[in-house]
Each structure stands twice: as C-alpha cells, then as structure tokens.
Amino acid sequence: MNILLLNGPNLNMLGQREPDKYGTQTLQDIVDDLQAQAASSNVTLTHFQSNAEYELIDRVHAAMGTVDAIIINPAAFTHTSVALRDALLSVNIPFIEVHLSNVHAREPFRHHSYFSDVAAGVIVGLGAMGYSLALTAAINLPKSQK
Ligand SMILES: O=C(O)[C@@H]1C=C(O)[C@@H](O)[C@H](O)C1
C-alpha cells in the first residue's frame, strides 16, 4: 500500500513556529515517527512539503494511479485554495485532512475549509497525534471510500 503525506506552507517551520498552537516537534520529527509507523504496517509512506501551491497541485496529479490514499495538511491553503481542492478531486484518490491545531477554536477565517466536505475524514486539534491517527485511518479506509 502506498500513502502520500502532503504538508502545505509554513509547516517546514514547525518546532519554532507558534509552539503554543503547533507544538515543539519539527516536521522531520513528525515524519520520522510516521515512517516508523508505516514500516510497522508494511506501508510505503512518501512525504512532500511545499510552500508553493502549484508544487502541491503537481504532486497530487503525479499521485494518480500510484497512491492508495493521501494524508494532507493544506495549512493556510485550507482556507483559500480551490485549485488544490480541484486537484484532489481530479485524481480520485481518497484523502484525509489533518490540522495540528483546532482551527474551529481560532480566528473565524480558519473555520472554513475548501477540503473537508470532500475528504474521507478530517482530524483537527490533536497535534502530531492527528497525523498518526490519519495514517491508521488511511490504511484502514473501507473499499467504498477508496
Ligand atoms: O493547524 C494546522 O495544522 C493548520 C496549519 C496552518 O499553517 C494554518 O494556516 C491553518 O489554519 C491550520
């Protein structure tokens, strides 16, 4: 099974970026833990992070036919990117949306997501554990959601 993990803008700054909201683990720390979890489940996990919308879009397109599920934290693009939403809809790969912080308890502009209504599932506010839970869910998605 192949799972693609996508992280959006500013998540490369995790560890020093507003630790009260996003925690103190670096993105590499999080990815390392997920890679270990994936290996224990005989799953191939590929990670890509970009601050550029078009790079994330291109990576979603490239996943067509090769990836069984996507875990994505679109970061700020969550609240702005119709284009990235459309990319995910264009490849017909189930995806799970993850947010480290509870976006619903933050500024109003973070309460809307262009992804949640077309996601297989959404995990918010659980910090790095959210990614781990998303990986477990992605591995166990029912056929109907694949
Ligand atoms: O909680 C998170 O992981 C999301 C990460 C970001 O960078 C924000 O722009 C989102 O609003 C929330």
Automatic annotation (TrEMBL):
Please list the GO terms describing molecular function.
3-dehydroquinate dehydratase activity
Q: Transmembrane stretches, by residue range?
A: 118-141
Catalysed transformations (reactions) = 3-dehydroquinate = 3-dehydroshikimate + H2O
Metabolic or biological pathway, per its Swiss-Prot or TrEMBL entry? Metabolic intermediate biosynthesis; chorismate biosynthesis; chorismate from D-erythrose 4-phosphate and phosphoenolpyruvate: step 3/7
Q: Which residues bind substrate?
A: 73, 79, 86, 100-101, 110
List the Pfam families. DHquinase_II
Q: Which UniProt keywords apply?
A: Amino-acid biosynthesis, Aromatic amino acid biosynthesis, Lyase, Membrane, Transmembrane, Transmembrane helix
Q: Give the source's domain of life in one word.
A: Bacteria
**Active site located where?**
22, 99
Gene3D superfamilies tied to this protein: Dehydroquinase, class II
The record's EC number reads 4.2.1.10
UniProt site positions, description: Transition state stabilizer: 17
Q: Does the keyword Membrane apply?
A: yes
- The first-level EC class reads lyase
**GO biological process terms held by the UniProt record:** amino acid biosynthetic process; aromatic amino acid family biosynthetic process; chorismate biosynthetic process; quinate catabolic process
Give the matching NCBIfam families: aroQ, PRK05395.1-1, PRK05395.1-2, PRK05395.1-3, PRK05395.1-4
Q: Which family does it belong to?
A: Belongs to the type-II 3-dehydroquinase family.
User: What is known about what this protein does?
Assistant: Catalyzes a trans-dehydration via an enolate intermediate.
Q: Which HAMAP family does this one have?
A: AroQ
Subunit structure, interactors included: Homododecamer.
Kindly provide the name given to this protein in its UniProt entry: 3-dehydroquinate dehydratase
> What organism does the UniProt record list as the source?
Alteromonas marina
What lineage does the source organism belong to? Bacteria, Pseudomonadati, Pseudomonadota, Gammaproteobacteria, Alteromonadales
